[in-house]
């Protein structure tokens, strides 16, 4: 039987009576401007003790997109700064350092409200390529990639249709080619059959070559995200979102999993199969004396039905399900993932668009923003956007400009955090 001491009884009745007695450790104020510019707002002590009665709305089986600024904190007037900020700084020393002296957020292009994914920068052409799930479809049956030309000022937005045509995603670039994770699948897309696959695009000739399109005869579910290791192996994730989002005419044939593909031999090996919906995947830079770290995000909080008889049913969002980034050590022979451990539970929506900066910081999209974490998963800075983010990519000679793409918008962040230079 639980027994309450007299002090506990007093506090209980005080709260029951509607009194606003606050814990002695309450953080006040929760937020304050710490720029310049004024759009940089610091969260004091991570707002670890909020004044009552605060409340953040969860979602269990709907499409509600929770965002941190939507938390109701009626007893702290500084919380209004959080809703207006472009940059939320949680670790002031490291956060302000990565932002630099004059960070900026610019909403550059308005696009349709469909999902815009997989931006990839080509240093060969100085252009940013990204995909869309709904566009002009001109010519009929085709869905062009979008291209931001960074050779002109201001940048210009155009379209690209590869030869032969590949639907859906562009993912990673090297100095010479772009690697595409092709997510859609249909037996006739503009007269061409296409299945979830991995392909390359030569940005100078616009020619594509398919590298992989099956696992021992089975269709992949959704070749969603990938990175190319220094040895040429391609690590990729295969969730079920193509079926959920009606991008394929076939229900899933394989379990969700992550794989390693060796283009030189054609061999494909599973590297993880215990993540509900593996989505983002990224590798940390080389650190002397340490194994390389691979990160994979689980976005199982957004899922739907896989039963073919019901057809694609869309997705629902449940805040109590998986929305976590996991870290793994890459084995010495670069073939296996070891020592799985969680490093970050997304504070908004689900973590995706996963990448690692040149200094080892983890960067992930999460709802209406982009989160920057240290290598242990501590949140340092959040870039807040005015649209739902799907993915992002660094561009420019020093890989300092971050371009963000998503539902209804394309934005550019200028800061001091550099991306990895791709080989």
Automatic annotation (TrEMBL):
Signal peptide extent: 1-21
Q: Which residues form a coiled coil?
A: none
Q: Name one Pfam family in it.
A: SGL
Residue span, SMP-30/Gluconolactonase/LRE-like region domain: 319-404
Gene3D superfamilies in the record, alphabetically? TolB, C-terminal domain
* Alphabetized UniProt keyword annotations: Signal
Q: Which InterPro entries match?
A: 6-blade_b-propeller_TolB-like, Oryzine_lactonohydrolase, SGL
Q: What is this protein's record name?
A: Calcium-dependent phosphotriesterase
| Organism per entry | Hyaloscypha bicolor E
């Amino acid at each position: 039987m639980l027994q309450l001491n007299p002090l506990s009884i007093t506090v209980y009745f005080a709260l029951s009576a509607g009194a606003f007695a606050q814990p002695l450790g309450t953080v006040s104020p929760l937020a304050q401007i710490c720029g310049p510019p004024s759009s940089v707002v610091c969260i004091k002590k991570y707002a670890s003790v909020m004044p009552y009665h605060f409340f953040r709305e969860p979602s269990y089986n709907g499409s509600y997109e929770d965002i941190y600024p939507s938390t109701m904190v009626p007893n702290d007037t500084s919380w209004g700064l959080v809703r207006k900020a472009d940059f939320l700084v949680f670790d002031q020393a490291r956060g302000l350092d990565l932002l630099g002296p004059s960070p900026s957020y610019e909403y550059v292009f308005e696009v349709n409200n469909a999902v815009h994914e997989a931006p990839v920068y080509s240093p060969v052409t100085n252009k940013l390529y990204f995909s869309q799930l709904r566009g002009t479809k001109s010519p009929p049956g085709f869905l062009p990639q979008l291209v931001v030309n960074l050779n002109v000022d201001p940048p210009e937005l155009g379209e690209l249709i590869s030869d032969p045509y590949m639907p859906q995603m562009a993912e990673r670039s090297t100095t010479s080619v772009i690697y595409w994770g092709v997510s859609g699948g249909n037996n006739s897309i503009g007269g061409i059959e296409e299945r979830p696959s991995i392909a390359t695009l030569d940005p100078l000739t616009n020619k594509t070559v398919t590298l992989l399109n099956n696992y021992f005869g089975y269709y992949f579910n959704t070749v969603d995200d990938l990175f190319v290791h220094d040895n040429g192996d391609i690590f990729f994730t295969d969730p079920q979102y193509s079926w959920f989002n009606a991008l394929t005419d076939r229900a899933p044939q394989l379990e969700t999993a992550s794989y390693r593909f060796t283009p030189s031999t054609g061999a494909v090996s599973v590297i993880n199969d215990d993540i509900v919906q593996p989505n983002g995947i990224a590798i940390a830079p080389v650190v002397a004396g340490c194994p390389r770290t691979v990160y994979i995000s689980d976005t199982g909080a957004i899922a739907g039905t896989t039963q073919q008889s019901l057809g694609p049913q869309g997705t629902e969002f449940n805040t109590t399900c998986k929305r976590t980034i996991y870290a793994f050590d890459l084995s010495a022979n670069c073939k296996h993932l070891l020592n799985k451990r969680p490093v970050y539970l997304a504070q908004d929506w689900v973590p995706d668009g996963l990448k690692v900066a040149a200094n080892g910081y983890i960067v992930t999209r999460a709802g209406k923003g982009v989160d920057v974490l240290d290598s242990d998963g501590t949140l340092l800075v959040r870039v807040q956007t005015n649209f739902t983010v799907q993915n992002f990519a660094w561009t420019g000679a020093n890989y300092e400009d971050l371009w963000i793409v998503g539902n209804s918008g394309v934005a550019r962040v200028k800061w001091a955090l550099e991306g990895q230079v791709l080989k």
